[in-house]
Design brief:
mainly alpha
Amino acid sequence: MARSTASTRGLTEGVIWKQLLAYFFPILFGTFFQQLYNTADAMIVGQFVGKQALAAVGGATGTLVNFIVNLFVGLSSGTTVIVAQLYGAGEHKRVGDAVHTSLALAITAGFGMTVVSLLLARPALTAMGTPEDVMPYALTYLRTVLLGVVPSFLYNMGSGVLRAVGDTKRPLYFLIAACLTNIVLDLILVAGLGMGVFGAALATILSQALSAVLTLLCLAGSGACYRFEPAKLRFTKGMLGGVLRVGIPAGLQSNMYSISNIIIQTCINSFGTDTMAAWTAHGKIDGFFWMIMGAFGISITAFAGQNFGARKYDRIRKSVRDCLIFSAITALVIGGLYYGFAGPLQRIFTSDEAVLAIGRQIVGLTVPFYFTYICIEIMAGAIRGCGEAMPPMLMVAGGVCVLRIVWIAVMLSFHRQLSTVLVSYPLSWAVTSVIFVVYYLRGNWLKRCIKKSFGSQEEEAKA
């Protein structure tokens, strides 16, 4: 395998913690703006339409949309890993094959998912126990947003390529443009023209289309090995399997959270519209913590991928250590701020006192325990970046999805309270983190990745 040249080293040289932060912050700001334009829908709809619309935009539809998006974000992480490893190893021709295969996958799978999701929208909302007063809003919002699936997937695949080669700034700029567009359109369509949840959904898909176009134009205008040429858009033999081998488990891992959240959302729905609205408002604020964790996860995945391709294994271990420190500090600071200012923050979305009271309960039972989650994101990202994606997915499936479902199925029958549902979050975070720590320290995963990729006992010894 070709070794990295000076022009392709990217994340394989320099002070690790400085490089991680330099890579992390543009991703963070990008995900911040992505979260901001999702939050803008909820804020404007909640204030100008009502709490039923607020419940629809977030609670009733949010988990279903996230389920779809997470699958393709996971697939894009497969692209990030493959491109980062090839780029770190200096294999330029294969980088181009990976780019065009990934974009072809985004288009074909995106169209397929759009059709299936539109057909299943009403049955899914009904199965989740969406209240009758929320259903019309939820169905309108969900069906409209689903029309933007392909642009969303194209943006995620394209930005995954850029981040894999160390370019985190341009995906940030594209998201800023999309965010500002979404907010302006929200104000025009919802507050100005009174188009309700349909206007909010239309604003979202138009802004997603803008980010996709900007990303593709950026790739098409590049003179580097990752340049996008429409005539080369096809599935390359062997490359699709590599992307799917990492991407599908990563997508399924993300959707382990979504599956458990859909079940939890069904429980939340059963407590009524006020609880749904409170859960939606909390989710929009809570999402800022998860976007930071996600940015750390993307950073460590790309960092590990490039250094694995360059065969610099010690840098992978050190990057995990530094990333764990940064994320622990983040969890304590963000958790403390949200816990302390929960009331004013939730009033941004609603002034209904019953909703706010439920919101305070949600915060008290989940936010102080953010720190128990960090090992899952960082260690899973590092392991996946080196090419081993199935074990992290299985650990998340057991520790998060199965544990939460079992907890709710058993405990809710004895104690039917919102608090019973909420406790499942810190419980599952703590248990899964312990599993990841044991696997990371004793799983011998790095040597398996080396043997699979390089087949060299000498390389294994370096690990």
